[in-house]
Amino acid sequence: MGRSKMSQEVQRKIWRDRSRRRYQRGIKILRRFKLIKGCKRCGFKEHHASLHFHHKNPDEKSFQIGSDIEKMTFSRHSKSKIRLKEEMGKCEVLCANCHARVTFEEKHWRKDFNDKH
Q1: Domain coordinates of the chain in residue numbers?
Q2: Torsion sign across C-alpha atoms 4, 7, 12, 18
């Protein structure tokens, strides 16, 4: 194995490790944020997995925070970090039960509104 081949493999490993650490740091930030805020409706704060980001106005949604977080990097002033803060500003934290209830009510309100007009 040549020297350049070895250094390429080492560089790839360093890059993967760095990306993994940034991703994990981003996940920790989101989990902590959700636990600090808690559910806006009922106050639940027991576990991060039961807390969701709910877009106040779905038409303004740029991306889904939970699923797109893996594509983001969290260096100091990265565009991803700025975009995430902007997107989080469009959301409220709700527990799974309240989120399901709110989503259900919003969909039915829109359906009823569209049927009448």
Answers
A1: 3-116
A2: negative
